[in-house]
Amino acid sequence: MSVEAAALGAGKAVAKIAASKWLESRSARAAAGADLIDLIKVGFPDEIMQRKAQSKFDDLIASVAEHLRPYIRTELRGLTDNDREAALRAVAATLNQADFSDEKLFADDVDPLRLAERVRAALPRWDAERELGESGARLYTVAVAACCDCLAHILKHLPEFAERAAGESLARLTRAIASLDEILSRLPVRTLDAPQGESLDGEFTRRYLERVSAELDRLELFGVRFDRLTRPRTTLSVAYISLNVTNENPGKSPSWLASTSEWSDERSYRGTARAENALAEHRLMLIRGEAGSGKSTLLRWLAITAARGLFSGALTSLNGSVPFLIKLRSYTDRPLPRSDEFIDDVAPALGAITPDAWAHRCLESGRAMLLIDGIDEIVEAQREKVRSWLRNLTDTYPRARVVVTSRPAAVAAGWLGAEEFQSAFLEPLTPGDLAELIRHWHMAIRDSGDLPCPPERLPGYEARLLARLEATAHLRALATTPLLAAMLCALNLDRDSLPRDRMGLYADVIDMLLETRDAKRDIPSAKVVRLERKQKRRLLRDLAWHLSTNDLVELSRSTAQRLLAERLESMAYVKATGEEALEALLQRSGIIHEPVPDEIDFVHRTIQEYLTAERAADLDTMNLLVQAADLDHWREVIIMAIGHANETQRRDLIQGILGRTRERIAPERARQLKLLAVGCMETLPAVSGDLQEALDECLDGLFPVKDADEASSLAALGEPVLRRLPASLERLPGYAAAATVRTAWLINGPDALNLLQGYASDERREVQDELNLAWAYFDPDEYAERVISAMPGWSRKSFEVHLPAQFALLNKVPPLWSLRVHVVGLNDWSILSVHSASLRELGLTGSRLDAAALTSLVDAVPNVRWLYLHRCDGINDLTPLRNLLDLERLYIDHIPPGTDLSPLAQHERLKSVLIGRGRDVRGAEPGSTGKNSRLCRQLNEKVPSELG
């Protein structure tokens, strides 16, 4: 018997059951042994009618067999013909033996699913998988369900089990069979990929994506103690910023490194690009990054943005993806998840209603986005299993997109190279990234409902934090990861400002990185080597001391292991070798790392200095610190050693430094030592009267402030310095006046604002520029009202705004001659009309200038003579520029190829033009003729392929 014949046999079984119910001459059980031909003869005594009935039933048999064809030939290519034939014969036998009496049919409500389930269950002693094998049993199950589908729909179209005239019955049967193809086309398509069809997929996908969007769109800061905040929670989609990544694939230079999409900007540099560009280009990515660098946040952002369909730019093609976030730390004590368990980490409650094989279909179709978080969070022995699991997934589902994250100490860049994963490394925050993150964080916390202040005060907190970071290099050096930057934001808000004494802040950072964050998240790999927080700190302290005292940048592995082994000998209850302790600290501390093989250093220089200072106080090496006081790289160690030291040590150290200022040394060197001595006041918890007098005398001798570096050093002391700043700048030379203004705004706060208000009337350019810069570090409204509005007119001077709130307050600024706007996304320029009579130079960065916006800009500033447009999107029509009748100089660094330049020919006064196409900038000078038709010809003739 062939496979087709077996399929016809199954169809014949369906037809026989249909005939028995149609003729209703006996119960289904009594008719079970009768052949279809016998049933037709009983129902039709007339031979002609018998032939017609036989023909119709043959059609029915063929239709059922045809309905089974996809399951036989398309879905189970791994089965032999004999296997398929056996499965279909079993289907026919099952149907022939089943009870289809009215009683049973009505009990099942003639429902195909219930029919199929009962029919299969009616053979309790027959094990399909044992008899037919796993794949054969699956074919048997699907084919029984398909036959029951056909049977149920046919029975519903037959007379309701009552005697009718043979002709009428035959007519009904003819209509039922004629509509069978249409009926079958409306049935759910049952396949091995969709055993119950796909009709529920759309509704379930919608509910799952809603859950992803709600569950993952929040960030919590673990491991920090707060006084006024319960636990800072922010909206991830608002707080997220784009990060830089470095290509880690040797010999390869992917196109995303040179991307000029909206994700790239001047903050990218050679070898780096925005993470979104890398993810857009590669289906399989390994993202590595240090502790707190934003790996998990990146995956969560990908998940919620996919769930909402809000990707733009390079990632637009990923809209419609279905994200699955899998936290590997959840699988340390159980097998890695199967596809039907992928939703468990984010939406476990939906598991009970997930359509069969739904996740499999998402993966098979290429819509799935697998986000695998935390290779480093599982123990080393499990990582090879994860690699095999990933290899199996990518082989089985070659269209699925997969992103994996890890700390670099856990896996190398090429760890998944054989699986064709591309590797990229998350870079530290740039200064621009840090400012953007702070702005986004404060926007996100506004809606959290956990504010210790009225929402309208948040801009003041944000500005104060920016000023503090600008004033203190050690804080900027610390805030190089999103985690630590967010921690500073939260502490600044919780404690009404960051404490001037950095010692408590560093202690909190070290505790969070060493212990509390991993403990709160229950990271399994953090428990492999049992080290208490104080023990880890002692080990790291020894490494820091060795680096600093030997003037080293990094340690070799062997040296680090030896130092740790020596320390571990004094820790009686620690059962670990130097090598094991080093691996534990590299993988989980977030404080040291191995950026290249056999070179170990501290992630944050300032943490190394803090631990070195702690070790110096422990060893009582104050004389060594005094001798190193004139060395720049020991300055921060000395200031923090004061915070770690006891009273006697503090006195010895400060007196030693002051004593060196009285030696016969160059005045400039003596001044630097005085700056260091008073800098120690930042971390000095208490001081005796005579020492305080000496420090006050030293501090008094440092005024007036000379330059920006001294301003930053003195600003760290806060109020004592602010009290010494003059109420007026009249007697100070310009450079000292500007440094005094900078000192005041770096210290920040209400008293500083009072001073700046008094300085506002000073007309010197350097003072005005410094006051303009200070605006970004105070509440924008209050500063505009008290300082900006009191400043003299800006004749021939350039004024800059960097924040949307500043731009919105330009109506409070005195008349401007030159303005630079560094605010991304602006498109309403009406406020500039306040300065239309005076404004002659205008520079814009990051604005969107389509024809309508460009027209609005020209209408607001009709008298502009010099226009600079940098990174402004949407410029494709230069026609509005014809209305700038006084325009003399024009710079546009990017317009699309083919843009018509002819509107520029109508400017009789236009002296020079620079036009950029992508990365190329071309310029032309019309010379003394002033004929700008010639200018446009020059532009077109220089680069015709690019400039039209």
What is the secondary structure topology, with strand pairs?
Layout: H1 3-23, H2 36-43, H3 47-74, H4 81-97, H5 102-107, H6 112-121, H7 128-155, H8 166-178, H9 180-186, H10 201-216, E1 219-220, E2 233-234, H11 236-239, E3 244-247, E4 272-274, H12 275-281, E5 284-288, H13 295-308, E6 322-327, H14 358-365, E7 368-373, H15 380-396, E8 401-406, E9 422-426, H16 431-446, H17 458-471, H18 473-478, H19 482-494, H20 502-521, H21 533-549, H22 557-568, H23 578-588, E10 592-596, E11 599-602, H24 605-619, H25 622-627, H26 635-644, H27 647-661, H28 667-679, H29 689-700, H30 708-715, H31 719-722, H32 734-747, H33 750-759, H34 765-774, H35 780-786, E12 794-801, H36 804-808, E13 816-821, E14 841-845, H37 851-860, E15 866-870, E16 889-892, E17 912-917, E18 920-924, H38 932-942, H39 944-947
Parallel strand pairs: 5-8, 5-9, 6-7, 7-8, 12-13, 13-14, 14-15, 15-16, 16-17
Antiparallel strand pairs: 1-2, 3-4, 3-9, 10-11, 17-18
Helix pairs in contact: 1-2, 1-3, 1-4, 1-7, 2-3, 3-7, 3-8, 4-7, 6-7, 10-13, 16-17, 16-19, 17-19, 17-32, 21-22, 21-24, 22-23, 24-26, 26-27, 27-28, 27-29, 28-29, 30-32, 32-33, 32-34
